[in-house]
Write a structure and sequence with these properties.
It is a single chain. The chain contains seven helices and four strands, in the order ααααβαβαββα. The protein has about 160 residues and is α+β, with helices and mostly antiparallel strands. It has two domains: about 50 residues, no CATH class; about 100 residues, Glutaredoxin (3-Layer(aba) Sandwich). It has a four-stranded mixed sheet with strand order 2-1-3-4, with helices on both faces. It is elongated and about 80 Å long. The two termini are about 50 Å apart.
Amino acid sequence: MRLTVLLCALALPAAAQSDFARLSTAERIALGAEVRALLLAEPDIVGAAMAGPDYTANAYQDEARADLDLLAALSDQVLQGADIAIFTATDCVECGIALSELQAISDSSKATFIDHNMSSIEGAALASKLGMTDAPFYVMTDRILRGHMPEIVLRRYLTE
């Protein structure tokens, strides 16, 4: 009810072709009382107005969905039943370290991995389909991790 009264009060000056700066003292007091009552009755209005829309989540939602769809479509080729895939290259210094760390994780847990060498035609083609150019990077069913990840990070992802 109060919201209706407030909306009517806000519409009346516009309909009368006036603005809030020209309200009489009595009109200003009445409008202030209605706004105060509304905000006390509906405090979530202020929180929602202050928070505003989450543009970042909305802006990337379609891209994130497209990435997840791509991972799902390529899952059989990329993961081949493994928990994680690593893409390496022969001229990559960090790739050897990354492979050793994945092997250690695999040896001490049930996590499995597959190595796709981007120097091969097949590895390069898969990396291209994923939109990736720099080794190393990792692929799981729900994410791609760019660059060398420390063993502790990978262990957390693989043993959750």
